[in-house]
Amino acid sequence: MRNALVPTAFVSLLLAAGCGDNASPGPTATATTAAAGASTDGSQSSALTPEQLGALGAQIKKQPNDADRLLSQSGLTEQSFAAAVRKVSEDPAAARRYTASFKSAS
Hints:
- The protein is mainly α.
- It has one domain.
- It is built from seven helices and no strands.
- It is globular, with a radius of gyration of 13 Å.
């Protein structure tokens, strides 16, 4: 499960960054789900910058067996990390910052 989380989050960011300029008339199911997930998570996930999330994602990719420890050091769970990444993916500029940080930390 941990091994699938980071690549999935990364792909989600790339897709969101590519589609970020398309305007939609209303919220999509994904945006609604992300907003619902973000509201139930702790405040720590919203306090991390896209750069910090990107660096954390890269660390998890390098050390997947230590994912739980790395997340807990940042005050996150798998679910709150995924929600924070989804929230970042909603903003194209933040998604680019996340991606740049992920790549530089990899």
